[in-house]
Amino acid sequence: MDHLSLGIRLKLAAAIVLLIGGGVAALATNPRRPDISAEQTCLAQAIYFEARGEPLAGQFAVASVVLNRVAHPAYPNTVCAVVFDGSSRRDACQFSFACDGRADRPVPGRAWHRSLRVAGQVAAGLRPDLTGRATHYHAESVDPAWAATLTYTLTIGGHRFYHTRGPTLARR
């Protein structure tokens, strides 16, 4: 090991930390465990239905939006309340899957397990918010009127992310 440069040693150390950290997070978010919280399940549902076809960064970004809303005074203060806000009225919800009239039951398999792991990692604070504290997003294929009232932060995969302006910006 003495013959390795400092740069290579740092890269190895970073890889080991990521491997160990990711492994611990994966163990902590094993979808076969019966003790997964309701909050993690709600967050995983949002990830699964809103972003399962997106790159991993897009899935982390959708999860961050949910948590940014939980931290924001204009939204409910629990993950499940944020995810299902307005779901009792068709097309009045914050996340389209929650009020589209279809069942909100994920299909067991790779995508659902990945959503659970992403939810666990984000909820545990193991992944940074890539969105610039975004509280909103939409698919690039649509142009909602509300987007003009918010500040654009970035695009990840097929989603554009935004945050509110001024003093009500979520603080984390």
Verbal overview:
With 172 residues, the protein is mainly α. Helix content is 42%, strand content 9%. It contains five helices and three strands; from the N terminus they run H-H-H-H-H-E-E-E. Strands 1-3-2 form a three-stranded antiparallel sheet, with helices on one face. Strand 2 and strand 3 form a beta hairpin. The termini are far apart. The model is unreliable at 17-31 (pLDDT under 50).
Salient structural properties:
globular, 42% helix, Arc Repressor Mutant, subunit A, three-stranded antiparallel β-sheet, mainly alpha, 5 helices, 172 residues
List the helices and strands and how they pair.
Blueprint: H1 6-28, H2 38-51, H3 56-71, H4 79-83, H5 110-123, E1 136-139, E2 151-156, E3 159-163
Antiparallel strand pairs: 1-3, 2-3
Helix pairs in contact: 2-3, 2-5, 3-5
Share of β-strand residues: 5-15%
What is the H-and-E element order?
HHHHHEEE
Oligomer: single chain
CA radius of gyration is 18 Å
Domain module tally: 1
At the fourth level of CATH, the homologous superfamily is Cell wall hydrolase SleB, domain 1
| Unreliable stretches covering 5 or more consecutive residues | 17-31
Annotated CATH topology = Arc Repressor Mutant, subunit A
Q: Largest sheet, if any?
A: 3 strands, antiparallel
Quick structural overview:
The chain is mainly α and about 170 residues long. It has helices at about 5-30, 40-50, 55-70, 80-85, 110-125; strands spanning about 135-140, 150-155, 160-165.
